[in-house]
Specification:
The structure is a homodimer.
Chain A lengths: L8 E3 L8 H17 L6 E4 L1 H9 L8 H16 L2 E2 L5 E2 L1 E7 L9 E5 L3 H11 L2 H18 L5 H15 L9 H19 L7 H15 L3 H10 L7 E7 L10 E6 L11 E6 L3 H6 L5 E2 L3 H4 L1 H18 L3 E8 L2 E9 L4 H13 L5 H7 L12 E2 L1 H9 L3 E4 L1 E4 L2 E7 L2 H9 L4 E5 L7 H6 L2 E4 L7 H9 L3 E3 L5 E3 L4 E4 L2 E4 L3 E5 L4 E4 L4 E2 L7 H13 L3 E5 L3 H9 L5 E5 L10 H31 L3 H13 L1 H27 L4 E5 L12 H14 L3 H17 L11 H6 L1 H20 L5 E6 L5 H22 L6 E6 L2 H5 L1 H4 L5 E4 L1 H9 L3 H14 L13 H18 L4 E4 L7 H9 L4 E4 L4 H14 L4
Helix pairs in contact in A: 4-5, 5-7, 6-7, 13-14, 13-19, 14-19, 19-35, 20-23, 21-22, 21-23, 23-27, 24-25, 27-28, 34-35
């Protein structure tokens, strides 16, 4: 029995656009175009399977591959009437890489294959000019030398420069054929010197080595890095397209160019591109001469231009998307060498998609599917003028590069502490808060800053999270920055920036500049195409899209962007404002003592109720409570905060009239609101050593003791969330009272308020039971006092594994679940995001130990499994339970798909991400066949 | 239709021992005894249902209850021939509380019910002595006044004392009938004055109020606290037994006593108890006169004594367990008023159970089920002589009381830092290490200490965990302690203890004493009854019992206690020994730089292999690596540690020959091995302010920077466990090499070594995949070098929710799972045990928000669910996977039951808990019907 060899090689006529897995994008589209009748030079494709098999076999060609290549080559020879390596009329070919997913510039290509001293002469004869023949030969040796033989390209460039100098040639094209011949000889000598071997003259060996080099380039460092960054699997392999060369460098009736079927920057429907006469394709990219706009071709070669326009239209109609076309004109004849879906700006992508729907070219669904939701972000944030940025770079104003932690651009005075930032910021000055890293103590400065820059911390560090929440640009973890807080300056990129000097940060790219760069602020209301697209998205999506917003201004922005509710209002951010922080600190420092007295009173009262004695002890403790300074501080601080918070909530409810507002009761550990332990420790030590101010020393020591009694080894897993509500009941009671007083007040004004009170960090149903009773009790009291009722709901944040696992029991006490996927990711993985990202997580992703950063893209196997469990259990107990997500994943498209799949009711994300979420939710519905 | 009223009241003849739910323990056993024919006075029981219904109805008798009581009373009257409230021959009754679970002394009892001025005279007539009649009357008014009317008992005592003084009476019994009459009048006047109402004379009202008072006592503060402490549900309710009074105070042929069917301290088979002639039961307990030993009754009333012995035997045979009997002799007639299973010491419980098996009274299975495994702990740890402790207490040497964090007793010199502790301890002095709290830095001191005392931290704080691991006594969280580290003394209980003064700590009770208290050290080898019992346990248990041991001495003790393997050997404890810590610190401080250079070398080498260039860059980085001080430090520190660790492992393998040893690779964050950030911060500040030693300042600043770069916000969730192995590959490699070199070395000596290498803190299968490859590579190298092979296994600690959820994938790379339930509990609940226990967890348990401290008793609903998932998934992938638990729960009986139920192969616990685990494992098998 004869075993049929596997098919590794596909002639263009055997392929089509659907075969990108096997032939790569480039190969499949060349085949498609050839079959549809576009002018494509003849050729064939070596499949990605061959590449994978090559690696599987220890970097050896699989059996029969070479025979199939030779057979295909013979067929090409027949079609072109030329022969490969023929001394008289040689066939030249290119070998181009191309995987399923485009990785521009990451892999290798070899052009002009098939030349040695004999064919080159034949080529000269056929084309009638010796110079023409030696130009590709010279190029070929350099390209082959670099790509296949691994010789540094600078060596070949040096040879070229040396001869140009000798010949007094300014451009490559100024070199004569003798110069070119000499360059060829010198380049071959160079190859011998570098590799110890002669340059391979056998065209078939050249071809074979080139195919190997293209295969190898799949696993080049750059390609691997690119795939890691873009999350492209490493096992796809590359195809190799072998195509007959056509020559744009055969005189003024020849040339090469690239063209987009629509303007890739604006999306306007007009042929857009560049063309270089008498040049090969690589020259257009290399910038040896400045290419001309493709429209000018209309004047020079009107038929060719018209044909190009026609082909462009036909390609767009054929592919139903904007195309990026590579073409060559050889002696007045147009060839298309490549077509692919064009990379374009987000703005262009949206405009083109919307236009195409209007043109009847594609459906709304196709338009929706076509836009990468994440791209929208950049069209919604302020951004720097690109030209100005380029200029700044060229002037050496680029100071450093950090992590692009929160998109957008900002310019302002560098300020090194939050207090000063607040002082200047509240005067209306634009400032950039620059800190080694930020903590809760810096929030009052962040609130007024135009942007935030930190030297340490990852993209989910405190600075990054708060900045994204505030919709402010942030560059985080900018390790090159050296900040001297004492002398108030920073150094970076060899420059010193004093406080109050202006800097500019680009949160979308991570760049930090000295000086001011002008910004452009887009407005959604002006983006009519985007508005249309999002309108279509709203028609098909099933998921609701809510926003995380802590302030009325955030809420208003969220509404503008299309949010249907507030899914997370973090009350503690309100605590950090300047006039409140001292009150909050007073409350915290008195809480423990006051609460202990209260608890004793309650216990005694209960016992007295039961047993009818104890009046004396009760009276004594009551006396202690009544005269306790701590208790008095606690009560007055709570009363003051209650008034502040009531107004905060009124503001948000007013903006969100008719829509739900989920308010999370205070969550962070209380010590976050106190000065840092380390700072007070240093101060105390200073007072102690100096010994000249015993009063301040005592004060400092007292504060130190207070903070010490509260600080925690792992604050993330300590006394926070609902544990605060259970240990310091009055704080939650104050907040609930503020929420419901605000709500009742507005309800009386006839405003439709829909407060939803959310309890954070619940791990056991009993926590929820006790707190629900408490909330209901306060609600009854407030409703009685105010003489009105509001339709409030009580829910829970599911952010601990145990909450997910016992969601059926928790649902007895919760009308809604909101998945807090930030904390759920932390506890499921055992990762502290503050520590992990800087110390190992990014390396994990780079090394492929984790497929993604789970704080950016929801981990379906672990965290997702818990969410699924919780959804099922929650619905079992309470079929109409409302389910949402309010972690940062709520704004991530892949995570939104997951939320759709598991059947959540809504996602909630930062206001700026609302448009992204609307689109992603629509795509999720469409890909589930629900559109 | 007539609705039959619910039955609330059960005559003794209607009950039996199986009805404890309904009749309470006391009531059910009275009924049982009455029915079997023991001499029990007639009576009836009001059910626990009635009590619960009473509360449900807002503290009202349920319908028909009172009628049923009256009916039962009439029946009692018939049986006794007396009438309740009869002026001539009155029936007196007692009303006694008694729930399903015994709560001794926590609830109320009223005796001598049914007296007023008329029946008391009748009683006098019938008994022939007026004095006798007024004695119970006087007692009744006091008891009723206190119990039912809520009057402080001191008032009644004052009245009694006043009349005793007046009458010149030393004992109550010296009072004459006129005195008693006057006391009665005065007590009634007191009642009027205190309550504003006359003392209720109506016997039926007295009865009704007494029943209510007993119901109420179910929810008294003491009862609630007791139930919380003993984890008794609060919804059981109490029954009320109403029984005809018999009188031990009717002369010298009367009396009252308590007796145990065996000695409750030793378990010896001999009637043991106390007897007081001419007294009521309460007098025996109250200590008004010193009771005599029950044996003496043999001389005074031989028939009664013989009857008591017979009844004792019959009761034991009937109940098949040691009984605690309350009896009264009324004019030569013996009555049994109560029987219950006797409380006895652990030693007695074991001896009695083993003896009863030998006597043929119970089966081995019954003996095994009967012993509470936790009790064994106290019979295995050194303990203080109780008498000496009592004496110390009476001398005022009890300084304070903390948490009983690790059982056992220790005496030694108080020492306030680990260095000094080590210094003195290694000279053989017995020392107690006293610290505000401990950290990894203190371990070298803890290793040599006889005991550990801390002012802060819960029962799973560092001090507690390490102490339990070391089997050393520890009192933790002793908040009353004030430690002045600078001046080196502590204050507590108003005393000052200077360094080097002796103190004694009792880790089983949490007591701290000044001075030396003699200890008693039990030996398992001397506990023949326990050995027998554990032998039976081994016959029936299915679970293996292994031990957690870090040192050969621990391992030896574990073997002595019956461990079948080492389930957790924590390699990092070895790092803390004095001579090693500097090497470890050198390794840590050089790790980052050295590893970065290594990584660059590896990357370059890979790229060179692929592309055949880069020699120069590679050479340059190699040069940098070769000349790097950090790299040199790193290499030399690792080499030194490798030699230490190899010897450590040899020691353990040798002890454990033929048995498995699970070695966990290094787990804690590396900064735990460095000095504390705060300390170095203070030092640096001091050097800076003093400004007189720039060299030391610079050194201090450097160290501070190094520590700062490593410290973490939440170290529990940071760079630790397998993340260290992935980021600093050489450290794990060093450990694996040490393990396998040791193993191969011993294998060559013919010793059967079974190393199991365990990777901690895995959350993603890829972590395990990469590390498994690494371990296997090192193993191949070592085996080749040593020319021998060992049968090693590679496994994983399942201690993160994500690991449990993806256990099927992880099992591809792991031959065993060991559940690290400490960390799994932390991450599942989101509790940092260092913070939670002190700040809220204990309150949670007290308030019933959590049923137990989940760090002590495994949480089945959350953590347990994850374990079940992991067991199922793990076995799906690898049916023969070995499953164990090595968290602290491995030594907790309830958790061991769970481990049995979910089908683990073994539990591993601290050596001292091995006997407990053997017994608990047997009980688990028996209760699953596998015995």
């Amino acid at each position: 029995m004869r075993i049929e060899a596997k098919k590794w090689v596909y002639f263009f006529s055997e392929g089509n656009a659907g075969m990108t897995d096997l032939l790569g994008g480039k190969g499949a589209h060349l085949a498609e175009m050839a079959n549809v009748g576009f002018p494509v030079p003849p050729g064939f494709v070596i499949s990605t399977e061959a590449c994978n098999e090559y690696y599987a076999a220890g970097e050896e060609f699989p059996p029969a591959l070479w025979d199939q290549v030779l057979e295909a080559l013979r067929r090409m020879e027949k079609e072109t009437g030329k022969r490969f390596g023929d001394p008289r009329n040689p066939l030249l070919v290119s070998a181009r890489s191309g995987g399923k997913v485009s990785m521009p510039g990451m892999m290798e290509t070899v052009l002009n294959l098939g030349l040695n001293e004999e064919p080159v002469r034949g080529l000269g004869d056929v084309t009638g000019t010796e110079r023409f023949a030696y130009d590709p030969y010279r190029r070929f040796i350099g390209m082959f030398g670099r790509t296949v033989l691994g010789i540094d390209s600078s060596h070949f460039e040096a040879v070229l420069e040396q001869f140009k100098l000798k010949a007094g040639a300014r451009l490559d094209a100024d070199l004569g054929s003798e110069d070119l011949k000499a360059i060829v000889s010198e380049s071959k000598r160079l190859v011998k010197a570098e590799t110890g071997k002669e340059f391979p003259d056998d065209p078939l060996e050249q071809l074979r080595l080139s195919i190997e080099a293209v295969f190898e380039s799949w696993n080049g460092r750059r390609a691997i890095n690119y795939r890691n960054f873009h999350k492209i699997p490493h096992d796809l392999g590359t195809a190799v397209s072998i195509m007959a060369m056509v020559f744009g460098n055969m005189g003024d009736d020849s040339g090469a160019g690239v063209a987009f079927t629509r303007d890739p920057a604006t999306g306007d429907k007009t042929l857009y591109g560049e063309y270089l006469a008498n040049a090969q394709g690589e020259d257009v990219v290399a910038g040896i001469r400045t290419p001309q706009k493709v429209e000018l071709l209309q004047l020079e070669m009107p038929e060719v231009y018209q044909e190009l326009v026609d082909i462009s239209d036909r390609l767009e109609t054929h592919y139903r998307d904007v195309q990026d076309i590579e073409f060559t004109v050889e002696r007045g004849k147009l060839y298309i060498l490549q077509t692919r879906t064009a990379k374009r700006t987000a703005k262009a992508a949206v405009k083109a998609a919307v236009d195409m729907v209007k043109e009847g070219l594609i459906t709304k669904e196709e338009a929706l599917k076509r836009i990468e939701p994440g791209e929208l972000l950049y069209s919604l944030f302020p951004r720097f003028d690109e030209g100005a940025k380029e200029e700044a770079r060229s002037q050496g104003d680029l100071l450093a590069r950090g992590l692009n932690a929160s998109p957008g651009a900002a310019t302002g005075k560098a300020v090194f502490d939050a207090d000063r930032a607040e002082q200047l910021g509240s005067r209306g000055e634009s400032i950039i808060l620059v800190r080694p890293e930020t903590s809760a103590e810096d929030v009052h400065g962040m609130l007024v800053a135009a942007g935030i820059l930190t030297a340490r911390g990852g993209v989910t560090s405190h600075a990054a999270v708060v900045a994204r929440g505030l919709g402010k640009p942030c560059v985080a973890g900018c390790e090159e920055l050296r900040i001297d807080l004492e002398r108030r300056y920073l150094t970076a990129g060899g420059r010193v920036i004093e406080e109050n000097e202006e800097i500019s940060i680009d949160g979308s790219t991570g760049e930090v500049f000295a000086g001011r760069i002008p910004t452009i602020v887009p407005k959604l209301s002006e983006e009519s195409d985007l508005i249309a697209l999002l309108g279509w998205a709203d028609e098909v999506r099933r998921l609701g899209v809510w926003a995380n917003a802590d302030y009325p201004s955030d809420a208003a922005r969220a509404l503008e962007f299309g949010a249907e509710g507030i899914g997370l209002c973090r009350t503690e951010h309100m605590f950090f404002e300047e006039e409140r922080l001292p009150i909050v600190q007073k409350m915290i420092l008195s809480a423990a003592e006051a609460t202990a007295l209260q608890n004793e009173l309650i216990r005694l009262q209960e016992e007295k109720d039961r047993r009818g004695k104890l009046e004396e002890r009760l009276a004594e403790v009551q006396r202690r409570y009544d005269t306790s300074a701590a208790a008095a501080d606690y009560r007055s601080a709570l009363a003051e905060l209650m008034r502040f918070q009531r107004e905060d909530f009124k503001g948000i409810f007013r903006v969100m009239a008719g829509k739900p507002v989920v308010i999370r009761l205070v969550d962070p550990p209380l010590h976050e609101f106190l000065p840092s332990y380390e700072r007070v420790l240093v101060e105390t030590t200073e007072f102690r050593i100096r010994g000249n101010d015993p009063v301040k020393l005592a004060e400092s020591e007292n504060l130190l003791r207070a903070i010490e009694s509260m600080r925690e080894t792992n604050p993330m897993l300590g006394l926070r969330g609902c544990r605060l509500g259970l240990m310091f009941g009055d704080i939650y009671e104050m907040q609930v009272r503020a929420i419901l007083t605000a709500a009742c007040g507005l309800a009386k004004e006839g405003i439709d308020v829909r407060p939803k009170i959310m309890i954070p960090l619940v791990g056991h149903p009993n926590e929820m039971r006790v707190l629900r009773e408490k909330v209901e009790k306060v609600a009854r009291e407030v409703e009685a006092e105010m003489g009105t009722m509001v339709d409030y709901k009580i829910g829970v944040m599911i952010e601990l594994p145990r909450a997910a696992l016992t969601a059926d029991e928790i649902a007895h006490y919760a009308e809604f679940f909101s998945f807090g996927t930030n904390d759920l990711t932390q506890t499921t993985f055992g990762f502290s995001r503050d520590d992990a990202e800087g110390k190992f997580l990014l390396q994990y992703v780079e090394r492929g130990i984790l497929p993604e950063n789970p704080f950016q893209v929801l981990d379906r196997d672990g965290v997702g499994r818990l969410i699924k469990v919780a959804v099922e259990l929650g619905r079992k107990t309470r079929p109409d339970i409302e389910l949402g997500i309010c972690g940062e994943h709520g704004g991530d498209p892949s995570s939104i798909h997951f939320c759709h799949q598991v059947g959540l009711d809504y996602v909630s994300c930062s206001p700026f991400r609302v448009p992204i979420a609307r689109l992603a939710a629509a795509q999720a519905a469409l890909s589930a066949g629900e559109g």
